[in-house]
From TrEMBL, chain A:
Protein name: pyridoxal 5'-phosphate synthase (glutamine hydrolyzing)
Superkingdom to which the source organism belongs: Eukaryota
Alphabetic keyword roster: Lyase, Pyridoxal phosphate, Schiff base
NCBIfam families hit by this protein: PRK04180.1, pyridoxal 5'-phosphate synthase lyase subunit PdxS
SUPFAM superfamilies registered for this protein in UniProt: Ribulose-phoshate binding barrel
Catalytic activity entry: aldehydo-D-ribose 5-phosphate + D-glyceraldehyde 3-phosphate + L-glutamine = pyridoxal 5'-phosphate + L-glutamate + phosphate + 3 H2O + H(+)
Pathway: Cofactor biosynthesis; pyridoxal 5'-phosphate biosynthesis
Organism listed in the record: Lachancea thermotolerans (strain ATCC 56472 / CBS 6340 / NRRL Y-8284)
MF-aspect GO terms: pyridoxal 5'-phosphate synthase (glutamine hydrolysing) activity
PROSITE patterns: PDXS_SNZ_1 (PS01235), PDXS_SNZ_2 (PS51129)
GO process annotations (BP): amino acid metabolic process; pyridoxal phosphate biosynthetic process; pyridoxine biosynthetic process
Automatic annotation (TrEMBL), chain B:
GO molecular function: glutaminase activity; lyase activity
Annotated organism of origin: Lachancea thermotolerans (strain ATCC 56472 / CBS 6340 / NRRL Y-8284)
Class of enzymatic activity (EC top level): hydrolase
SUPFAM superfamilies xref list: Class I glutamine amidotransferase-like
Family as reported in the entry's similarity comment: Belongs to the glutaminase PdxT/SNO family.
Protein name, UniProt field: glutaminase
Residues of the active site: C114 (nucleophile), H231 (charge relay system), E233 (charge relay system)
Catalytic reactions of this protein: L-glutamine + H2O = L-glutamate + NH4(+)
Amino acid sequence: MSEFKVKAGLAQMLKGGVIMDVVNAEQAVIAERAGACAVMALERIPADMRKSGQVCRMSDPKMVREIMAAVSIPVMAKVRIGHTVEAQILQALQIDYIDESEVLTPADKQNHIRKSEFTVPYVCGAKNLGEALRRISEGAAMIRTKGEAGTGDVSEAVKHITQIRAEIAWAKENLRTAEELEAHAKELRVPVELLKDVLSRGKLPVVNFAAGGVATPADAALLMQLGCDGVFVGSGIFKSSNPDKLARAIVQATTHYEDPMKLLEVSTDLGDLMAGVSIDSINKGNGIRLSEVGW
Amino acid sequence: MSRVKSSIASYETKCVTSDANNIAHNGKSRTVGVLALQGAFAEHVEYLEACIAQHGYPVHVMPVRTAAQLERCDALVIPGGESTAMTQIASRMGLHEALARFVQDPRRSVWGTCAGLILLAREAADAAPAAAPQRPAALVEPLKALEVAVRRNAFGRQAQSFVATCDFSAFLGPSETQGFPAVFIRAPVIDHVIDPERVEVLHRLAGADGAPGTGPIVAVRQGRILGTSFHPELADDTRFHDWFLRDFVLGDHK
C-alpha cells in the first residue's frame, strides 16, 4: 500500500503541470527551462511515427539516459503495450515513470503489462471508464486520455475526458443496489470494490492527465477546464516554428486555465503552429487511429 | 478521513466562491493561501479544510495564483511539485518578487513541503551536478527566507522514493497513533543549517546504521517558517496540517 502511495504520489506532484515529449537532451533542456514538470523521452514524436508506418518500439536506453542526465525533473519513457521486458529494461535504468502506450506498436494483443509487479510507476491511456479502471486494477498509478496522438487535433482528448466523467456521473446516478454495482463492474471487467471507490470519490482514484492532440495553450486550458489534472504535449511543441515560446505559453495556460486575460496574452503571436491532421481525415485506407489500439 | 477523501473539485469551487466574502475579514480570522502554480496544491487545500471543518478554526483557505490573491493572505503553504516549474511560472508573471516579500514579512507564516522547502531556502543545489553542459543555471530561484541549504533529489530518482514512519510527537503532541507516515518523493534534504541560532531542527531520519536521529535533516522551523522534505498532504493524516494551523497561523509566532 505504501508502495502504491509513492507511485501515485509522484503523479500528484505533477498535477497542474505540462509533460513534454522530447527526442534528445537539447529538447529536454528547452522543456525544463520552459517550466515542464516532467519530460517523456522518445526517439520519434508521434507525428513522425504516424507518418513512418514502421514498427515503433521502446527508445534506445542510451538516449533516455542522456535525457535523464540533462534535466533535474522526472523523466518518463514509453514501452509497447504488453511488452514486459521493455518495461524491465526501463525499470533497471531507473526511469521515473513508464507509459505503456498505444502510440507504440503493441507487443501483446491480449494482455497489458501486470504493472503492480513493478516498483516503477506506470501511466496508461484510456478513452472510457472501463479502460481506465482496467489499467488501474493492473497497477497503473496515473491515467491519461488517449486522445489522438500526433495529429494536433484535440477533439479525441476532449471526447475521452468527457466520456470518463459522463460514465462516472451516470453510474453514481443509476447504480443503486449491490446487484447493479456487481453487474456494471462485470460489464466493465473491473473489481467491484474499485468501481465503488470511484463512485464514492466521484472521480478516478489516481491523477488523470490530458493527452493526444494538444497543440495550443487554448487546447491545454480547455482540457483543464474539462477536469483534467494536467497535460501531456507531444508533437505540438517541437513541430511549431518557435518551440521555446510555445512551450512556455502552454505551461502558463495550464496554470491560468481559468483566466481568459492571461490566456489571451499567452496565445498571442506564437508563430506557425503544428499544421496537424484532422481526425476525420484518418480512415482505414490511409492510417490508423491510435486511440483504437489497446483493450 | 472521509472529509479528506471527498472531492477536491468541490473544495476548490467553495474556496473561489467564498473568496469575495472574506477579503474584509475581521481581526481574528485568518486567510491561508496555498500556492497553486503547479503541484499538489489541491491536497493541501483539502487537508486544511478538513482541519478547519473539524475544529471550527476561524480560518479561510484559498488557492493563490496571482500577486493580488497573495496580498490577501496571512499565511502561505508552498506545496510539493517541481521547483523548476514553479520558479519559471512565478517569474514570468512577476509573482516571484511578491512571494519573496511575503515570505520575508515577519507578520506572515509560511510552510513549504518538498519543492516548497526548496523554494523557501537560502540556498538550493542539485544533488548531482548536471552532466549536460547546455543546462542553464538558476532554474530554481530560492526565496531565501529559511536559513538552510537544501539539496534537491537528495535520495535519488523515483526508484529511491519511500514512506518512513516517523515519531513527530515532540512537536505534534501526543496522540493514539504515534507514528506519522512521512512520504518522500524524489525528496530534497536539508544539507546543513546556515543559521543554527534561528533554525530549529525538528526531525532527522535514522542514520545509515539505523541509529535514530543521526541521518538527514527533513523538518525544520525558523519561528513562523516551517519546512518539510516530505509530504504531510499525502499522509491520510491531518495532524501536521492541524499543528500548522494552531501553532503558526493562529498562534503567536509573529
